[in-house]
Amino acid sequence: MSLVVQKYGGSSVADAESVKRVARRIVDTRKQGHDVCVVVSAMGDTTDDLIELAEKVSPLPPARELDMLLTAGERISMAVVAMAIAALGQEARSFTGSQAGVITDGVHGKARIIDVTPGRIRAALDEGHIAIVAGFQGVSQDTKDITTLGRGGSDTTAVALAAALEADVCEIYTDVDGIFTADPRIVPSAQQIARITSEEMLEMAASGAKVLHLRCVEYARRFNLPVHVRSSFSHREGTWVTDQPVEGAVVEQPIISGVAHDRSEAKITVVGVPDKPGKAAEIFQVVAAAEINLDMIVQNVSAAVSGLTDISFTLPKTDGQTAMNALNRAQEQIGFESLRYDDQIGKVSLIGAGMRSHPGVSAQMFAALAEAGINIEMISTSEIRLSLVTRAERLDDAVRAIHTAFGLDSADGEAVVYGGTGR
Amino acid sequence: MSLVVQKYGGSSVADAESVKRVARRIVDTRKQGHDVCVVVSAMGDTTDDLIELAEKVSPLPPARELDMLLTAGERISMAVVAMAIAALGQEARSFTGSQAGVITDGVHGKARIIDVTPGRIRAALDEGHIAIVAGFQGVSQDTKDITTLGRGGSDTTAVALAAALEADVCEIYTDVDGIFTADPRIVPSAQQIARITSEEMLEMAASGAKVLHLRCVEYARRFNLPVHVRSSFSHREGTWVTDQPVEGAVVEQPIISGVAHDRSEAKITVVGVPDKPGKAAEIFQVVAAAEINLDMIVQNVSAAVSGLTDISFTLPKTDGQTAMNALNRAQEQIGFESLRYDDQIGKVSLIGAGMRSHPGVSAQMFAALAEAGINIEMISTSEIRLSLVTRAERLDDAVRAIHTAFGLDSADGEAVVYGGTGR
């Protein structure tokens, strides 16, 4: 007997019928002899509906109250999932994030998990119950206020709980069959990945792959927890995110795991920065003070005559206005000439642990893009990742060109993707 | 400066516009220099919608999970009310029943408040915040599970919190102007009552008057807390439920306060019960074991020949099936002949502290009904109440006949009722 943590996303519990389907799957797992702890997201569009309601009463809802409001979503889904399980004759008990012992810091809207003390979950499991836990939410250590974990938070809840409970596996159920070598909507010949290392998955998530959220992968990596990403609409094997060998998975590890893309970033260029030591630091201090996470950074070669240089960086579009305001206020202090904002960019990233031992990867990638007539605006690299910024309208072409150049296209030219829903 | 607890029902916070209106009223109270603690119900039809959702996934949802589900309703309304207040420039903080320290027993669906420990509310008020508390919900003392207080539970939350906080007044906002001498939908000439004692209000609530719930009045009476029932749609003075004299309220106390009615009861008759000591007790033990509250009880005079008697009692229609099942199972043990179930009854009650010193009240009431040709099936009395059961289809006539007979009709023949919404 093992302990399985399962997480079902909003599309898997979108309505009463979906909830009953998910309940049957959970009960099946229980009947196979496993202890089961389930983490659920809010049903379908509930979160969006609640945000809309908040916007109707306040132009800028206080973050504490927005968290209080949004956590109603998972409360509803966890209770109905527990009811649907009970209707199948199994005992289920639902727990809020707070009740499940998900302790966070106090940053409303994007709290970080500090600790997980799942005493009540453990007790419920020991009594033979199926435990249903609200994803996405926790309680702040200092003020005991309700917090939310931000985008992808339910995945993080699931992995954090699985780690605290020392679960054997964390299954992340979604509406696709697993992780693919590229987004199948852009690359129809993308292939499902049988197994990917946590390091590669981390780079995929950081580069815009949407299936798993970055923090969730970080957590799984830290606790060495196998994560199985699979469809709630089929019984197919999904993608294993694990650093251990997986039975039945491909043994030979390819050089490249996949191609990720990201349309959510913008580029800010600080024009005419005095080319003196410390000026770049000043700029990034201003941005950091506004609590904005930068991604790529490029400093142009200084024009010797003027003694001025340009510094460009990318950041989430959602932080664009805040960053521009912060920099504008600091213009006199830093002494730059002007700011340029560009949200028509796209980022494509090639990820693969095999890059470490294959030095020709970047040359091959640049060649593929040159052949497709795509201009590269920024470059950044890690040990196992190579990211490029292109014009947004050429991003899809770039993803396809790279996917083909590295031999990732499936033999039959069309991926078998997305579960049994026809989506 | 005083401390005011305000409670707003579901119709007062039915949508975003209503929430904003309520927020303005709360902020006005705060600006008058009062500390304000607000208790809210779920918005409009939220609770019904959630029950409907539960029924879709389970024929008989576990009570614990139903409570978990339903409490999402107040969570939503308290958060948006807090947001709407913040949008008006005042600090507001919302608290769940559990956070507000509403400790209950473990009876899901109709939990009783055991204790209120409002430390966090007190702290919020001391910091100058307006505290918004979810009504209807608490947390069980033993298992720390979320509970709900049952019908009218938000009123009880408000009064219990007001008592624990030693508030100066508890204002119950509703969609009518206050308590009336009878339901104005039945008696158009009913008058608003300026002040009523808690004892009378207790009898009114127990007799079917819907504006305030029984347990809320019991709580207010126990803690000697003035309750002001008023409309959230107008600024008119409402009805004061208090045992203290109220400034501006009528000084001369009438004999009769009002006429209440109740359509929610059914009558069970146990036919052919052996007329031996202990048989009635056996019947009521069976009913009590099913956790059913009886109302009126009548035992017929025994027919000396047969040695058998009939026992009738009334109970909530919702408990009818349970009671019939329990009695059927005990037929052999008790030895009665048969059971009769009748849900076509109505109860009319006359309430007034003045009854104590005016012995002619019952005769006057019977005469009024006789004149209207209405048959009386059961009678029960308390010191300040006289209740009769009639056929359901004659109930409205009975209410009107009694209202007129005791001089409660307003001079102009039509009550000014219901606030500014045209409802």
From TrEMBL, chains A, B:
EC number: 2.7.2.4
Native organism taxonomy: Bacteria, Bacillati, Actinomycetota, Actinomycetes, Kineosporiales
Pfam families from the UniProt entry: AA_kinase, ACT_9
Enzyme class: transferase
Catalytic activity: L-aspartate + ATP = 4-phospho-L-aspartate + ADP
Residue stretches making up the ACT domain: 268-344, 350-423
Keywords: Amino-acid biosynthesis, ATP-binding, Diaminopimelate biosynthesis, Kinase, Lysine biosynthesis, Nucleotide-binding, Transferase
Gene Ontology molecular functions: kinase activity
SUPFAM superfamilies xrefs: ACT-like (SSF55021), Carbamate kinase-like (SSF53633)
Pathway per the UniProt entry: Amino-acid biosynthesis; L-threonine biosynthesis; L-threonine from L-aspartate: step 1/5; Amino-acid biosynthesis; L-lysine biosynthesis via DAP pathway; (S)-tetrahydrodipicolinate from L-aspartate: step 1/4; Amino-acid biosynthesis; L-methionine biosynthesis via de novo pathway; L-homoserine from L-aspartate: step 1/3
Family affiliation: Belongs to the aspartokinase family.
Function: Catalyzes the phosphorylation of the beta-carboxyl group of aspartic acid with ATP to yield 4-phospho-L-aspartate, which is involved in the branched biosynthetic pathway leading to the biosynthesis of amino acids lysine, threonine, isoleucine and methionine.
Protein name, UniProt field: Aspartokinase
